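re the bet — no i am not wrong, look at it urself. input seq straight from the record:
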Amino acid sequence: MRKLSITRRWLFSTLGVTVIIMLVVIFVSSKALRDYYYDTAYMTLYSRARSQSVNNFFSQYLNAPDDVFSAKAGEFIENYTEQSLMEVWVIDRNGNVVATSTGFSVENEVYPDYEQALSSNTGTATWIGETSNGEAIMSMTVLLQSRQGQAVRYIISLQDLNTQHKVFTVIIALACAVSVGLVAVSGLFFIRSIVIPVKRINETAKAIAAGDFTARIEPHRYNDEIGELVNSFNKMAKDIGEADKLKNDFISTVSHELRTPLTAIKGWGETILEMNDSDPAMTKKGIEVIIDESSRLSRIVEDLLDFSRMQSGRMSLRLEKIDVLAELDETVFVFKERALREGVELTYNATTLPAPMMGDANRIRQVFVNILDNALKYTKQGDKILVTAEILPRRLKILITDTGCGIPPEALPHVKEKFFKANVSVRGSGIGLAVSDEIVRLHKGTLNIGSVLNEGTTVEIILPVDTSPPLDERTSEDEK
């Protein structure tokens, strides 16, 4: 299908309608002006033709001989004071023009209004036409009172009126043409101010689609919707570029994370195979490494699956009545041995009271595992990790604080974003915190992170819990 540009569509629609409207304006204005001129001429003729003074002048000569009537007609013409405004004829009963205000005899002239007046009930008729020499006129014939054919014919030349009408029509047409021109120029300028940025957006979008994530649109000169669109598009392009970089970094990181345990598993598997049970201690150590690295692979795969579920909105919870502190106790116990091996002091300080809530025990434990794993990864030998838990009204507040390397201030707002890693030298997929934040959010809680570079990081987890006393305790209190 042939592409029709916005500019052409505008020319065919808006400008076309404007031209039609202007043509209608010209036609209506011209007709109204012509009617006004002709009505003015008609009223002038009518006011003179209905004057009783004319009938009074000719009343005693209507039955006189033709030569007497003709003489009186000449006298009437000589005394007529408005000869400069209109031409006047006097016609006898035979239809002959016996006197004219111009003084010239009338030959071969057509005056249909006289014939119409003879047959009219009012004895008056008007005609608009041209004389034998082509002059446009408006004439009105009024029969005298005798109705014997004598009449006075008043004639106004329309030449000047028609000329004025044409001049004003041309002026109106020129004004409309100028208006259409201004509309066209301003409209084209306005359309171009939209079309050109849209073309640039289209070209930039094609460049981005081709893989050039550095493509940007020049800022729009006006602070309007197009300017806002350009800014939004540039921001989108920047975000896409950053997301693509994070994706590439993520693929590189995950590839490395997968390669390391696979290499260890393969290496120890080959070693055990070659030893052929000759060194049981070494075989046991190799199997332990294979089991540890397999667990590590499982965690990576589980993180990827959780991320996929989170992205598609399919992450679900298996809710049941759980004790959050029991899950935290178990997780800390598991990590104490690892902390001891890595030379990190892990301290746990929590209330002995239960913290019941409706939650998914495996998901809650996954959050604790991710946070403690990060704390150990970003601390070195001799550092400390402190885990505290405090029950507040209808809430459980858990703080996991380390004295590790901390997070740079510019990276802190992004640590919960997918694929983001504040320190690329540390192993990890960069999605653990994003998954943990989503799990806490699904439990109607919050996960906040505060950090000071080179001093340490604190992760705050707040979860809603049921702090009301058990039913048996409430019953005992009621009995008291």
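see?? The chain has a mean pLDDT of 83. told u. also The chain has four domains: 1-49+159-210, 63-157, 225-312, 320-469. so pay up
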